[in-house]
Amino acid sequence: MEDERGVDDLIDIADEIPETLGLSAGLTEIRATARGEGLSVTVDVHGMLVALDLGEAALEKGPAALAAEISRLSTEAGTRALHAGMRAIKAGTTPAVTAAVGDALALPPESEPGSEAGVAAGSGSGSADDAGDGPAAAATPPAPTRSRRRPAPTDDDEEGFVLEPVKD
Fold this sequence. Notes:
The chain is an alpha+beta fold and about 170 residues long.
């Protein structure tokens, strides 16, 4: 689906957003957390990792499995943060702006609350918590979905997972 709107049309839509809503500041504070066995990943609305908590159970997985689980949970939390952002945009802008952003993001449908490992997204509070209580909620695997995820890393790396500093 190709977007027929030009730059001027998008600027007109953006001009419809009231400046007093504090929408930008609210979007900045959105966080979503996904939890796995011994592992918690929190991202912001841009998908940037803002917190990573590793427990003993996570460290016992081995480098490749741990990296794959962090990637999976980051994707899950990022999708939930984007859904929270869309709810904020819908509440604070016009239908035309909401539609334009929704079309650009092309998010998969939002799952029912509590249906995936007790993960919830928060908006404005700066955090998100499990909807379930205790280990039972965290141990429930998410329902399999067809998404645009990256394939899991292969185990053909003899040296294991190595973190390297970012070079400017």
